[in-house]
Amino acid sequence: xxxxxxxxxxxxxxxxxxxxxxxxxxxxxxxxxxxxxxxxxxxxxxxxxxxxxxxxxxxxxxxxxxxxxxxxxxxxxxxxxxxxxxxxxxxxxxxxxxxxxxxxxxxxxxxxxxxxxxxxxxxxxxxxxxxxxxxxxxxxxxxxxxxxxxxxxxxxxxxxxxxxxxxxxxxxxxxxx
Length: 177
Fold this sequence. Notes:
The protein has 2 domains: 3-80, Ribosomal protein L6 (Outer Surface Protein A, domain 3, Alpha-Beta Complex), CATH 3.90.930; 83-164, Ribosomal protein L6 (Outer Surface Protein A, domain 3), CATH 3.90.930.12. By secondary structure, it is of the alpha+beta class. It contains 3 helices and 13 strands, in the order H-E-E-E-E-E-E-H-E-E-E-E-E-E-H-E. A hairpin with a 6-residue loop joins strand 9 (102-106) and strand 10 (113-116).
């Protein structure tokens, strides 16, 4: 049995949830999000809570049970609080700046990397070595952070590159003379 799936998802004040077959739409102060649930689960809205249950006890149904409940929870949290990812840039001359609708990254290449900022997500640079990504869709915010990090992953010798704030980079000693 899924421990996560058993928990009901509370709907806070100011948030409305509509169910249309297997599609759930959640609307709140920050915006509206939709999710199409897989056919292996059943979603019910009872009062101010959302319940997710599996259709049967097959392996796929049980696997989708907890996953669907977590996705529904992310919808509710996204339209109330939103999500945020922070990246840190380490390296001599490495920096970031928002230029119009693009994020301009100087990462030691012969050219600057321009990353277009998608609609529904805001990217800010409080310092030249920090990037903050905020939005209501957790999956989209995480994907954008991963794409920006992929331009220059942190290397293990000097730690240069783009990393998540709080991420531990295993450092190597290097060759001895």
